[in-house]
Amino acid sequence: MDILLFNVTTAALMVLMFNGGLALVGQSTLERRRIPWAAVGLTGLALAGVALQLCWSGAMGALDADPSKSGWWRVVTSVFMQNGGFGGAAWNIATLAAVAAFAEWFWGAPLTLGLFAAGILLPEQIDKLWGQTSHSTDPRNFAGSSGATYFLGATLAAALLLRGGADENSGKAVGQGAEQGSDDEAARRGKAVRKNRLLALGVPVLGLAMWFAQENGHGLVSCYGFALGALAWAAFRTVLHPDRDLRQPPRTTVASLTGLVGRRTRSAD
After folding, report:
1. Pseudo-torsion of CA 197, 203, 208, 209, nearest 10°?
2. Measured CA angle at 171 (ends 234, 194), to 5 deg
């Protein structure tokens, strides 16, 4: 029962982050956005790690983050090893792909990669400052991408809280060119604001609850990510352009690539 509850709360936290990412970039805008190549690269590394594990039985022993073994590379390579079986690996890779895509569309590729790297390196160092030297605080348990993914997802929740969602900002844009807006529009935007704030605040609140109730490290690293996301928004907000693809459509979009793949699949049949 404890394991089931652990998995349910961990999944619930990711659902909050996923919905927060959708709210931040706008679900209706996804098809018009560029291919998130940094996210594709991270997902490819995770898939390559699984392939390596299937081809080499010693991959986990050589690349995991077991503190009893030496190797400066382990803290990084362990992220691309998976130790949760087929289901755990599929979940980790799927959530990494989605969260990294949302992050790239909002933060941009360079900052996304920097935040993901921070999700790999910072939690263990912060734990040491707090005297938490046991790996029980590390959701990866020597391997797995979930810790860095949850860290990155939490940065999006912080941005959602501080900037607001795409539906809120579109409402502001409409209001600039018209009078103070109708009552219906004001009610719609007010509902969106409340929903987005609840989504954003739910991440650190649930994360802390998971940590104190279960010692679930996914919750703790999510709090770290939320804090760094707030700092990143404060530091880089003037240079971020999350709506650039909507103002200047890229040559290759998610919709165009999906359509191309679909046509080739049908022609092959």
Report:
1. 90
2. 70
Can you give the pTM of this predicted structure? 0.90
In the numeric block, the tokens 């989504």 are attached to: 199
Residue appearing with tokens 């987005």:
196
Dig out the tokens for 207 from the structure.
Answer: 């994360």
Cβ-based neighbours of 73, under 8 Å, separated by 6 or more: 63
- The DSSP bridge partners found for residue 253 are 34
| Chain center to CA of 44 | 16
Higher pLDDT: 232 or 265? It is 232
| Residue 88 scores a pLDDT above 60 | yes
Residue type, 236: F
| Sign of the dihedral defined by the CA atoms of residues 97, 7, 223, 123, in that order | negative
Query: What is the C-alpha separation between 109 and 132, in angstroms, rounded?
Result: 32
Q: Within 13 A of 191's CA, how many CA atoms are on the CB side?
A: 6
For the chain, the residue count is 269
Please give the Cα distance from 77 to 79 (Å, whole number): 5
Distance CA 269, CA 260 (A): 14
Rounded to an integer, what distance in angstroms lies between the CA atom of residue 92 and that of residue 82? 8
User: Torsions phi, psi of 258, nearest 5?
Assistant: -60, -40
Contacts of 141 by beta carbon, 8 Å cutoff, 6+ apart? 83, 135
Residue 154 has pLDDT above 90, yes or no: yes
What whole-number distance in Å separates Cα of residue 209 and Cα of residue 216? Answer: 9
User: In a 10 Å sphere around its CB, with 0-12 CB exposed, 13-18 middle and 19+ buried, how is residue 146 labelled?
Assistant: buried
Rounded to the nearest angstrom, the gap between the alpha carbon of residue 94 and the centroid of all alpha carbons in its chain is 11
